[in-house]
Amino acid sequence: PICVPDPQPFQINIPQAVLDDLQRRLAHTRWPDEIEGASWDYGTNREYLQQLTAYWQKGYDWRAQEAKLNEFAQFTAEVDGTNLHFIHIEGKGPNPLPLLLTHGWPDSFFRFVKLIPLLTDPARYGGRAEDAFTVVVPDIPGFGFSEKPTKPGTDTVRAAELFAQLMTKVLGYKKFAAHGGDFGASITEQLALHHPELLLAIQMTMLPPQHAQKAKPEDLTAREKAYLLEVKAWGEKEGAFTAIQSSKPQTLSYGLNESPVGLLAWIVEKFYDWSDKGPDQRIPFTQDDLLTNVMIYWVTQTIGSSTRFYYEKAHKPTSESGYVKVPTGFASYLKDNVPAPRQFVERFFNIQRW
Length: 354
Known about the structure:
Helices cover 42% and strands 15% of the residues. With 354 residues, it is α/β, with parallel strands linked by helices. α11 crosses α12.
């Protein structure tokens, strides 16, 4: 057996000098010009960004948000040479089911903080104690407080392997369930392909994009062909960030790691574009939530290492694909960017709940 060090308790405590430096940078932002009446057509709207930046300077309280995050039991553990940060909360019920939750980009473990109490203590929120989960929420390597890879090769397959070891060798679970969206969906798929013996079930909110990219239209139904055209059209309109981060992430990182407003603009544009804004077209996230997610990137200086995850995935020499036999639940949201039809998803996953 491999000797794995015990998890070490972890608390977020950002040095005050980092916060002071942030304030200095915010105060000296050089604002670009903007086309009159552009709204969000050319990218992040300047008026919105200036208002959010003003709140970041004068209203946002990182220490209060830091304290809220530290209410969750956090740990670090070295797994196969990589130091992982994760939340680990025991469920309150007779037999809580271990559940791995994996985030994507441009978010972080913060994606799940409002969900965790509902899963770990459902009885408190009107559910049943027997439905409780024990929740594990790691940071993908190169994101948040997990270690930044220094060598090539940390992709979705590598992350899946690290998370499998985290769940089994570090935390001692023989079997568990897993959920993910965005990169989390891809990592969850790789877990199911490489370690089906560990998984009771998986649940996803997105179809990993390689399936649409590699599909052969002649084998598909009319609805599936229409879906592929929708995916292609969306990629042509909105996929520039993927092209950049899959090809030249290092060049991008210099500007985003230097300018907090540049980082905010890059990330908040995705939260605006990818969310259900409703008829009023207002972004449906609080300012505190948007800024806390961006702060996790800023204080850890992980925007560069997080975007490299796109490069690693794009440059993997062999594709890791196949049919997932693990029982799968899939949530297809009507207002997602391009909702995948069930018939197409079932080509790759053993769908048991839709």
